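1st attempt posting a full record on here, be nice pls
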Amino acid sequence: MNNTIKPPRLKPGDTVGIASPAASFFSFTNNWLSRARTAIEDLGLKVQIANNARHQREHLNPAPQLRVDDLHDLFADPDIKAIFCLSGGSGTNALLPLLDWDLIARFPKILMGYSANTALLLGIYARLNMVTFHGPTLLNGLSEFPKPLSYTLESIKDVLFTSTAPGPLEAPETWTDDAPSENSPRKMKNNPGWHWLKGGRAQGLLIGGNLHTLPILFGTPFWPSFHGKILYLEEVNMGNTVLMYAEEALAQCQQIGLFDEISGLVIGKVNNLSEAQEELLQKLISHYTSAFDFPILTQVDIGHTSPQMVLPNGIKATLDSEQNLFSIDEAAVV
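the predicted structure (as tokens):
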């Protein structure tokens, strides 16, 4: 029986709190933040930015305790119904020992982010069995010019606003890994669809996040169980070393026994890969999972490309290559 704690769904008129759990060198202007705020308001929601969310964001600035203070304030505030992360970056694992677990458990709320926020999302799920949400951040997904892509917005509505199972997921018709612009839309390209690297069928609870961030939790009290689960992974290309780092992370996942536990694997698109690099990435995934027979679906629209879907940690899902099916089989909110 799935006994995870589900947060209340969002409703028009609710207030979303904005926190910045991840330290980041990503620079942004008020235009980016203003566009993201407008996008959230267009969903019928109000926005409240936490005290330290807009501080200069780099390593240890603001300090982990200040970032935790923001999260505690937002969880404790009865007017805040969800918490969206400002951006990715690094360092969210530093927050985990400082969290007030009793406070978070008393006031379960939607918490959404991705990339480095993986450590926070999975740490909370591991400690509290509370559903958390891998999805767009304000500066990466919700600040698109002139507005977020419709696929991203529809996924938010389907997963965060609706207390019924989202059901089968479909690839968007177009996608982009073009760099975001201050004042022009990104160049879109046709989406060839998702790719079955290995066939089969799996059912289990969804869990996952960023390929490099996830293994950081191994050996800590914040490492969740992956037994029987469908694992999803995404990675960002920040230079020509992405495949080297991906290989290291995949090898680590293999060596710590992660692939021994799971029932299925979903891999997100990686931005700015050449055709040859994409082919090599597929070979790396095949190599490090060759001893296992679970289904593997790749080039899925999660992570550092746009549009993005929202995936809830701790919710039942199905992979079935014969039916070309990836579905979320249970509501993530109540």
